[in-house]
Amino acid sequence: MSAVESVTAPSFAPDPLAEGLVAVRHYCAADPSVVSGRGLEALIAGVAVGAPRKAWLLPGRRERACAIVRGCGADRLDQARPFRVVPPGDSPAARALYAVGLALAGDPAVVFIGTGTTGYGAFHEALQLAAVHRAPVTFVVAWYANAGPFAPPLAVAPSVLARALGLAATVVDGTDAAAVRDAVAAAEGPTLIEARLLGQG
Q1: pLDDT value at position 200?
Q2: How far is 90 from 167, CA to CA, in rounded Å?
Q3: CA separation (Å) from 143 to 29, 65, 156, 165?
Q4: What does the DSSP assignment read for the chain?
Q5: What is the domain extent for residue 166?
Q6: Are 92 and 60 in contact (CB under 8 A)?
Q7: Residue at 3 is within a domain
Q8: What local confidence, expressed as pLDDT, does residue 34 receive?
Q9: What's the pLDDT at 12?
Q10: How many helices (H) and strands (E) does the chain have?
């Protein structure tokens, strides 16, 4: 056997998280209208990879690229239900309630929540319903260190509020896709993940 024949190319297992991150970054960079999703790529990919395949994902407009990670074409993001991704609606807070409803119907749900949405009554109602009924829903809050020139939407951090209501809560670096993935994968029952981000929300 020659030296050339004895050398075999190394085999690498595909990394779903790395592939998902590349797909989300490509989508956000390719379309000039997708400015709002930039900076959230690690959060989006981490959630999409960490969530069980049977879980419903409920993104906002900024996070809808999570459907690409699940195999939906970028040109069909508004038709992502076959991939168990609910197309974004007009009310972010109502999305949290919808997630609880889906979870109570039998399948787990993971819902993206923005910093501003944490101040809405419907979001608080969703947390309360999830806690009371032990609904398998995970609230992923993109929590910015600086919410901008206005007053913070909550008097306490979302994780503190969630624990007070009886939900499990964890805090992760929202720019670390692996940390987000692991937190979502570990969630059991009603859970809130406070994904901390820098800059303005």
Answers
A1: 44
A2: 26
A3: 23, 19, 12, 19
A4: --HHHH--PPP----HHHHHHHHHHHHHHH-TT--TTTT-HHHHHHHHHHS-TTSEEE--TTTTTHHHHTT--GGGGGG-GGGTBPPP-S-HHHHHHHHHHHHHTTS-EEEEEETGGGGSHHHHHHHHHHHHHT--EEEEEEEEEE--SSPPS-SS-HHHHHHHHT-EEEEEETT-HHHHHHHHHH--SSEEEEEEEEEE-
A5: 10-200
A6: yes
A7: no
A8: 60
A9: 61
A10: 8, 5
Count of domains for the chain: 1
Question: Residue 178 is part of a domain; what is its CATH number?
Answer: 3.40.50.970
pLDDT along the chain (201 residues), means of 10: 55 81 86 64 95 95 91 88 89 93 95 92 96 97 74 86 96 96 97 85 39
**Structure token digits, residue 125:** 């109602």
Residues written for the chain: 201
Amino acid 130: pLDDT: 97
